[in-house]
Design the sequence.
């Protein structure tokens, strides 16, 4: 059965009351939300897909009385009135006001002339932008000499710096001075063009205006002596500062980006600093480390069990393309940060037991049955392979040759295809693929003639492991295609050692804060209670950030998020939930409907919305009791054995889960299903069928008939596998969609791989960068009852998906045309999906309730 309940809420005029201004300088007013009973408390508990609440949001950022109604202007995420924005800086809560400083270009909509912008809020949703806090410096002729890079603001409560008084303690800003000239400074120190040092400024009017400490700046002139080189002195930045209660001193964490280290300093007065320790490199190190921070959080809410979290930006080398943010859980004694052993990983590389698809150990394409077109006809693999003698390289006397090189057709019979890839960064573009405008230089996997997976290089000649999860295509026929239509710089691709594996090959493994492409330089607020951690990130990516299709402004921030730690699968992990949405207005229900069975594979909902807050809970389980049949085939004999087993609730009946159940229940090797392959490998404890049955030459026939799920009364030895790209275990929600679904952002969950995903390949305007289209995945296990919960925040140019309790998060920008349809799509067989009401909603801020809310009025505060 595939049943569904959908509830939406109508727009209406605001009914909230607004109190008097708090301070004349900020002009804030406090919103007092109207409270209503929850209209969902009486919903039938048997309903299957339940959308707990869907908010139609329209709260404008309040800057200089601008309407904030441009096509892509965020309505409840902060964006500047005009010009360029990137990293959040100096976030501090002080005297009832949240201050957000940020990297800002006062002269244009691209990166440059870095200064500190400033905005403030009393609820983290309504913002007032203020004059520039700390502006870049120019010489007498107007040429820049010092840029103000990222940093921190602290409240110097005890006036340790001496800049204020006991009655009026100062705010202190600690930031990176990036020098654009060789200079002799007022402090008597000399700096060189390109050098980065750490400076401070102070404010005696609660953060509105700032005075730089010119008599002593920079307070940290150079990195430690062992790191004195042009590379490190020019890449030494992004201080995060906080007070350590146990040690009673200030702590600073700084990044040495190119050597992947965090330097830890301490001070008693914020002016004089001593380097006391360092941390790194660990985990993801394929780009620069930037924007670090460390902070404490209790595990599972237990203040007697407190861990410390190191949060580190990485650019490039994120989980998808370009920028990303990783975290590491550990301990910190006020001097040294130590990572927990289960939070640090070794490089994975090539998984054991992998089977080679192609290693290019030949001199012609014909010898390995690959087919070339265009300029690659008559060529072949060339010397230089890492794993052998030869590899595929499309750089033949330069980058001017174009064409394709394709493998013979083969059956996908493992969960992952891995490969070593290098060369140019020219990703597949579905809009130009196969046309005269195609300029990609990519490795594509085609199933049924369509590109279903793709990868590209990183403008680097080094071969690194990449891979695809192809679980949903097992049993189908595929072709691997090298496409090179790029003729400029790095217009070639390098490829070697394509393999089948039962896990993903990776050069690096990390704990990613956000698995989407648009959450970077994340930072948290100072000034809050010790174990309360509110974070925000730059909702953009350096690989295309300057080119997004906005007009007078460019870039916004993510939603403010509450961080916490919880034990998941015996490991301490970071959780994120949207901070309180209670200050916004709300309204009665606009639309409500329940279905015992969805009326078709695609359902258009007769409601439009550009700003939404949706909570979805559903369950994907087999529709009948499961039995499993295992059969194996060799060139000589075929043997079958029928044995009952149970795939856990919430997991689909597919070949992998079927055999996993056999393995975990200890029902082999007695039934003999592995004996014809490699009996020595069939020992208890293997986590997958591929490891249990080994890598015999007859793997193709084994995999094509390995397992099927049947009614208990059936004795058939085989059964069909799903062939749909979606599969019968995928549910998709299209937002900002056209009526026919040809344009839209897809948010979905695939139970066969237990992953939530966001697909923006057809989300609207993707023409500004070939790096922008993509599908982004995050692992998400169902809860103990087999339920999957997603919370989706949609704004005019972004979508943020929080999965489960917040352990899986995807943030992605989108730039849709003026389409607002909302569509539900089931998989190939809707009966594979069951959903139930969401009884356990997200943990939110103290002021927030679970009431339905909708807003569309701009509130002048």
Sequence:
């Amino acid at each position: 059965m595939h049943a569904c309940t959908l509830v939406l809420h109508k727009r209406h005029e605001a009914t909230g009351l607004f109190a008097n201004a708090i301070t004349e300088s900020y002009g804030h007013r406090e919103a007092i939300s109207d409270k209503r009973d929850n209209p969902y408390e009486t919903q039938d508990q048997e309903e299957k897909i339940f959308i707990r609440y869907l908010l139609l949001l329209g709260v404008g950022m309040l800057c200089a009385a601008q309407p904030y109604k441009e096509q892509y202007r965020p309505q409840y995420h902060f964006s500047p009135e005009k010009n360029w924005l990137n990293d959040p800086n100096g976030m501090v809560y002080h005297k009832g006001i949240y201050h957000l400083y940020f990297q800002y270009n006062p002269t244009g909509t691209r990166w440059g002339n870095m200064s500190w912008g400033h905005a403030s809020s009393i609820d983290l949703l309504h913002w007032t932008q203020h004059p520039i806090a700390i502006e870049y410096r120019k010489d007498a002729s107007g040429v820049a000499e010092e840029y103000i890079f990222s940093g921190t603001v602290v409240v110097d409560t005890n006036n340790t710096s001496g800049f204020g008084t006991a009655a009026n303690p100062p705010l202190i800003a600690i930031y990176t001075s990036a020098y654009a000239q060789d200079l002799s400074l007022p402090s008597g120190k000399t700096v060189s063009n390109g050098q980065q040092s750490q400076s401070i400024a102070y404010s005696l009017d609660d953060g509105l205006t700032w005075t730089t400490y010119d008599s002593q700046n920079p307070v940290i002139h150079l990195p430690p002596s062992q790191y004195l080189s042009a590379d490190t002195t020019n890449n030494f930045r992004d201080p995060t500062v906080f007070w350590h209660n146990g040690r009673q001193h200030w702590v600073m964490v700084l990044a040495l980006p190119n050597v992947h280290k965090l330097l830890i300093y301490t001070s008693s007065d914020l002016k004089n600093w001593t380097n006391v320790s360092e941390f790194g490199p660990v985990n993801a190190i394929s780009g620069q480390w930037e924007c670090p921070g460390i902070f404490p959080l209790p595990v599972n809410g237990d203040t007697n069990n407190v861990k410390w979290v190191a949060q580190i930006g990485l650019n490039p080398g994120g989980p998808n393309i370009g920028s990303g943010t990783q975290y590491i859980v550990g301990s910190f004694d006020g001097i040294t940060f130590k990572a927990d052993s289960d939070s640090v990983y070794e490089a994975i590389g090539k998984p054991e037991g992998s089977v080679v698809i192609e290693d290019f150990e030949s001199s012609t394409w014909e010898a390995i049955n690959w087919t070339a077109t265009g300029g690659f006809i008559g060529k072949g693999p060339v010397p230089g392979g890492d794993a052998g003698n030869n590899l595929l390289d499309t750089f033949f006397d330069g980058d001017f040759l174009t064409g394709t090189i394709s493998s013979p057709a083969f059956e996908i019979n493992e969960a992952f295809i891995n490969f070593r890839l290098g060369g140019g960064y020219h990703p597949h573009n579905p809009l130009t693929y196969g046309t005269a405008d195609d300029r990609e230089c990519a490795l594509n996997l085609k199933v049924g003639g369509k590109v279903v997976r793709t990868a590209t290089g990183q403008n680097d000649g080094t071969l690194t492991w990449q891979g695809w999860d192809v679980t949903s295509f097992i049993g189908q026929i595929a072709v691997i295609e090298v496409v090179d239509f790029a003729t400029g710089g790095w217009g070639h691709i390098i490829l070697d050692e394509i393999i089948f594996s039962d896990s993903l090959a990776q050069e690096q493994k990390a704990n990613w804060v956000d698995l989407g492409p648009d959450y970077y330089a994340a930072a948290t607020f100072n000034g809050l209670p010790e174990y309360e951690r509110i974070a925000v990130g730059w909702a953009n990516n350096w690989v295309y950030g300057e080119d997004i299709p906005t007009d007078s402004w460019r870039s916004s921030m993510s939603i403010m998020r509450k961080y916490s730690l919880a034990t998941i699968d015996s490991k301490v992990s970071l959780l994120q939930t949207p901070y309180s949405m209670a200050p916004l207005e709300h309204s009665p229900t606009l639309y409500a409907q329940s279905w015992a069975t969805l009326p078709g594979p695609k359902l258009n909902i007769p409601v439009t919305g550009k700003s939404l807050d949706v909570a979805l809970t559903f369950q994907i389980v087999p529709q009948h009791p499961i039995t499993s049949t295992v059969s194996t085939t060799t060139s000589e004999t075929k043997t079958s054995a029928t044995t009952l087993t149970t795939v856990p609730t919430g997991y689909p009946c597919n070949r992998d889960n079927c055999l996993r159940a056999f393995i975990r229940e200890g029902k082999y090797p007695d039934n003999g299903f592995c004996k014809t392959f490699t009996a020595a490998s069939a020992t208890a404890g293997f986590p997958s069928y591929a490891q249990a049955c080994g890598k015999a030459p007859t793997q193709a026939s084994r995999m094509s008939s390995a397992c099927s799920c049947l009614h208990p009364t059936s004795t058939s030895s085989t059964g069909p596998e799903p062939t749909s790209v979606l599969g019968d275990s995928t549910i998709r929600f299209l937002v900002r969609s056209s009526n026919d679904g040809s344009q839209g952002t897809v948010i979905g969950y695939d139970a066969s791989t237990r992953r939530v995903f966001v697909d923006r390949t057809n989300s609207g305007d993707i023409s500004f960068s070939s790096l922008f289209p993509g599908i982004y995945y995050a692992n998400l296990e169902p809860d103990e009852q087999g339920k999957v919960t997603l919370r989706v925040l949609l704004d005019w140019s972004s979508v943020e998906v929080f999965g489960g309790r917040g352990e899986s998060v995807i943030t992605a920008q989108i730039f849709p045309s003026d389409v607002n349809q909302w569509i539900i799509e089931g998989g190939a067989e809707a009966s594979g999906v069951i959903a139930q009401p969401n009884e356990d909603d997200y943990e939110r801020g103290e002021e927030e309730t679970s009431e339905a809310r909708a807003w569309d009025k701009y509130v002048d505060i």
Summary: Residues 447 and 759 are 18 Å apart (CA to CA). The chain is about 5% helix and 40% strand. Residues 4-58+581-620+729-832 form a domain with the Jelly Rolls fold (CATH 2.60.120.560). Confidence is low (pLDDT under 50) at residues 1-65, 622-658, 660-728, 827-861.
